[in-house]
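Bumping with the actual sequence this time:
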Amino acid sequence: MGGLHSLCGMTSTGAQSPVTFLVDERSGISVTGTLDSTTLIELKHRLTDYFDSTDMTEIDVVTLDLATVSSCDQAVHEAVRHAMAVCAERSIALRVVPSEEVRRVMTARH
């Protein structure tokens, strides 16, 4: 049985994090807010937890929904690479849905 779980991150000081994760056991993880080096570790944990707690036998594609990420930095590259690696280990396809901000950062030339 799948379900939705909304998870708001907390900073080490106990303050509310600028990112929210919505985990849907049937399809993947949605990220809302800021994705940067301070929130990346939480996303990596959520991805690992997702794969550890979800029955993957009936899932062919996992979605990393970044459509509502309003702010991000180069950490988004690491987030996508990490998701790709975790999916590849399990022979599952990854679908990334970027926001305009994510698309801008991912395609920026340095």
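The tokens above came from a reply further down the thread. Residues 4-107 form a domain with the Transcription Regulator spoIIAA fold (CATH 3.30.750.24).
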